[in-house]
Amino acid sequence: MSDYIVKELMVPLSEYATVPKGSTLLDAVMALEKAQVEFDHTKYKHRAVLILGENGGVIGKLSQLDVLSALEPRDRESCEINELHKYGFSCDFIRNMHTQLRLQGSPLKDICSKAFQLFVEDFMQAPSEGEFIDQEASLEIALLQLGMGHHLSLLVTRGKGKKIVGILRLTDAFAAVFHIMKECEV
Amino acid sequence: MKELEKLLARIIQRININLRELNYDVSPFFKNLVSLNQMGKFYAFYGITPNHSLDFQFRHSSLAGSYFLGKCRTTNSILYKSDIRGDELKHQGDVFHYDNFKIPITRDESIDIEDSFLIKTLVHNFSHDPETLEKFFIRDTVSAHYANIHGSPIAGSFLCPFATVDLTTMHDCVIGTFSYIQAVEVDHLNIDPGTVWVRNPDEFNFLYRYPLNKLNRYINFIEGRAPQGFIMDFMDNRKEGFRRIFNEVNIEQSVPVPDSASLDRFAVIKPRTHISENVLVAQRAFLQNASLGKGANAQENCYIINSSLAGCNITAHGAKIIEVDLGKNIFVGFNSFLRGRPKIRLTVGDDSIIMPHTIIDIKKPLTIPPGHLVWGLITNSEELETNSIALKDFAKIDDSLIKGNMTFEGNGAGFVNAFRDRIHHILDTNGAFFDGKKNKGHAQKNQNISFNTIQPYPDGELQGLHPTILIQP
């Protein structure tokens, strides 16, 4: 086993971007920017925002991809094109159809202006079973969970109450592994 | 009756278990769909011919008004006025070609229906699934009025009214009202009403989606009600003709039938109908003032009224042709509805293909040129322009085509050739090319069928169920 444990590698919750349920996408993006400026001095920037429930607990995670997906057009034509996946049409064909539709659609600036009308809880991902890890767990266990679930981060819990105290990003785990690799080389 | 109620509850539970991943509950659809009291009122019947297997096994099933031919099994199932037509099943010793495999058939194929409820459904053709060549299974499945299960083993699925599954193995799917699926193999799909989908993976993919607000006028199906719409009304208005032929034991042939043609005694034939050589008219077909040229056919649940078919025409299962003049070699696909009006004729040129589940309903005369592919909903010449294309132009597609609500990707020539091959095969199988000696098909082989009837328990706990029956040579 390595000497690393999760709590040494995680970002404490207090230094991570969070917004309460009911916030808009714009609120979430602003919170992310603030956390990056105030707390994140590593070369790997925070890439998600945690959503807090009424009692302050984490109820979900909003990734950059979730924000971009939220801004995707949801008109009838777009939905019909997306449905073509179900019928086995090729990705190239569907992408071309979307391209044609976008050429006739609103510019990106107009699409982004919707961000203050959309709420985070409608687009966040609720954490799944394998996304939690105890702060005392070893790096090896963290790597196993990240790999098995293809997660970009894990929510770090403390004790039996499983209170969420931080977030372990894939980049933090990778940096630790990279450090061990370099030690091996020496 | 109690046992029948238990059987229905068991079938509904089994299908809901299969559809749980789609979060779909079929129960509400059964309210007012078919009264179980009806199940005791109608006899079932089976055909005996020297040309087909005689091998029936009916166990713990209700078979009201249903017809069986060939090798068929039903277990724990309810069939209401359905046709289980096993005259194209594979035989022991046949060889099935699939990709580079030549697969020997080790025993006669059977249609096996288990834990299923089929309402006015047609089952025909043979299993095209190389994994189950000797057993064409239908299990844990419900199909509503005028659905077609054609060469398609099915499990855990719900077929809404007028849905067709053609040459496709299907698991755990819902197929919406008036949807047609031919896609080799599908699972866990919920297909919207009015979808016409023909896919051969890696070769072509054709998709048409009806505008639902317009389709609903013709056919719609909502929870707690029987299917409704103009097409249902059209069929209901002609029920009486069928009542008579099912009630009478001996039916005199009302029109001359050539030696090489076959007219089923359970077809309704109204005056001024003409039947030429090599014609096949199947049971539950309805002809009125119809002229069928040499080699034409009318399959189950077809209606041909005030129309002429020049010859070698396929009227696939459930197609309706009213006030129409068809040229030669025209394919009218499953459940299509072609309607002109008196003095407002629809004319279709030679060698055209009317895709399955096409609706043409015109108020001004309309002509479809020869050699065209036609699909979707057409009520005037503008919509014909959008929903049709010359087959020679379609065959030139090597990438994709979007036309109105139709989307196509792949090889157009592959699509056209597949259809043409199939049309030729259907005509051949039906005996259209019989020359007096060679090329016998259904039109010649189905001429002398004897029918026996089997009755359900008339009363008591088992009312509506048939006793276990094994019928063999």
Describe this structure in words.
The complex is a heterodimer of chains A (186) and B (473). Chain A is α/β, with parallel strands linked by helices and 186 residues long. Chain A has two domains: 6-68 and 118-185, CBS-domain (Roll), CATH 3.10.580; 72-117, no CATH class. Chain A contains eight helices and seven strands, in the order H-E-E-H-E-E-H-H-H-H-E-H-E-E-H. Chain A has helices at residues 6-9, 25-38, 64-70, 76-83, 91-104, 108-112, 139-149, 170-185; strands at 11-12, 18-20, 48-52, 58-63, 132-134, 153-158, 163-169. In chain A, the strands form two sheets. A four-stranded mixed beta sheet of chain A has the order 1-7-6-5. In chain A, helix 4 runs antiparallel to helix 5 (91-104). The radius of gyration of chain A is 19 Å and the shape is globular. The mean pLDDT of chain A is 87. Chain B starts with a helix and ends with a strand. In chain B, a hairpin with a 2-residue loop joins strand 6 (95-98) and strand 7 (101-104). Chain B is an alpha/beta fold. Chain B contains nine helices and 46 strands. Helices cover 16% and strands 35% of the residues of chain B. The longest helix of chain B has 18 residues, at 412-429. The chains are: A alpha/beta (186), B alpha/beta (473). Chain A binds chain B through residues 80, 84, 86-90, 93, 96-97, and chain B through 183, 189, 197, 199, 201, 205, 207, 209, 400, 402, 407, 409.
Topology readout:
The complex is a heterodimer of chains A (186) and B (473).
Chain A: H1 6-9, E1 11-12, E2 18-20, H2 25-38, E3 48-52, E4 58-63, H3 64-70, H4 76-83, H5 91-104, H6 108-112, E5 132-134, H7 139-149, E6 153-158, E7 163-169, H8 170-185
Parallel strand pairs in A: 2-3, 5-6
Antiparallel strand pairs in A: 1-7, 3-4, 6-7
Helix pairs in contact in A: 4-5
Chain B: H1 2-18, H2 27-30, E1 44-48, E2 54-59, E3 67-75, E4 78-80, E5 83-85, E6 95-98, E7 101-104, E8 110-114, E9 117-119, E10 122-124, E11 135-139, E12 142-143, E13 148-150, E14 154-155, E15 158-159, E16 164-166, E17 168-171, E18 174-175, E19 180-182, E20 184-187, E21 190-191, E22 195-200, E23 204-209, H3 212-218, H4 230-236, H5 239-247, E24 262-263, E25 268-269, E26 274-275, E27 280-281, E28 286-292, E29 297-298, E30 303-311, E31 314-315, E32 320-322, E33 324-328, E34 331-332, E35 337-339, E36 346-348, E37 353-354, E38 359-361, E39 366-368, E40 372-374, E41 377-378, H6 381-386, E42 388-390, H7 391-394, E43 400-403, E44 406-410, H8 412-429, H9 442-445, E45 450-454, E46 469-471
Parallel strand pairs in B: 1-3, 2-3, 3-5, 3-8, 4-9, 5-10, 8-11, 9-12, 10-13, 11-14, 12-15, 13-16, 14-17, 15-18, 16-19, 17-20, 18-21, 19-22, 24-27, 25-28, 26-28, 27-29, 28-30, 29-31, 30-32, 30-33, 31-34, 32-35, 33-36, 34-37, 35-38, 36-39, 37-40, 38-41
Antiparallel strand pairs in B: 1-45, 2-46, 6-7, 22-23, 23-44, 40-42, 43-44
